[in-house]
Amino acid sequence: MSLNLPFDLPEPQRLALENAYATPPRAYHNFEHVREVLRHYVEAAHGPGWTQPAEVALAVLYHDAIYEAGRKDNETRSAQLAEEHIARFMPDRHIDVPRVTQLIELTARHGVLEPNDVDEEAALFLDCDMAILGAEPAVFDAYDRGIAAEYRAVVPGWLFKINRKRFLKSLLGRERIYLTPFFHQRLDASARNNLRRAVTSKR
Fold first, then answer.
1. Which residues of the chain register pLDDT less than 70?
2. Under a CB-based contact definition with an 8 Å cutoff, are residues 54 and 8 in contact?
3. Is the Cβ–Cβ distance between 161 and 169 less than 8 Å?
């Protein structure tokens, strides 16, 4: 299946990347999540557009490549893997590697960044990753269940529910859930509806 990338991804790199996303098994932060974020990446390409399309696409591909629920260094380790793979599989592509790693590491700050904290392209990339909040209710609910499943073996269920509700409430309380006009106009209302349901329903 095509990934709609602005470059040809070498098959060994693709296999290594898909293997990374399969380890450990994940209910949400898997390669299907990458495909979904890439769908929003393509939509943004036809909207505001990208000035560094290859770098942003690589950030999408690698932003959750290393993921263990509860760890604080997932983004840093994912950025390191991106560096290694770009050096190994794409040495002649003239990729701005520091930009790729910067974008990946910014995903650790979802929910705390304001629009003026990052440049417009970084904001658009981050919004692609957060677009799930404004998905159809059934899709959002599947995402919410997936996150819970990933944390099941990490923290007690009651503690996860408290922390998860606190995080979702913090998102709902923000003046802007999305950093860019492109995503704010399209998804803010549906995201708030999903978040309201999530924080008021029995979980």
1. 1, 202-203
2. no
3. no
pTM above 0.90, yes or no: yes
Report the candidate in 120, 117, 3, 118 with the shortest Cα–Cα distance to residue 58. 3
Single-letter amino acid code for the residue at 40: H
For tokens 């997936």, name the residue: 146
Cα separation, 113 vs 127, whole angstroms: 11
DSSP string, 55-103: HHHHHHHHTTSS--TT-S-HHHHHHHHHHHHHHHH-TTS---HHHHHHH
Residue 51: DSSP 8-state: S
Q: Report residue 74 as tokens.
A: 């997932």
Dihedral through CA 52, CA 59, CA 38, CA 147, nearest 10? Answer: -150
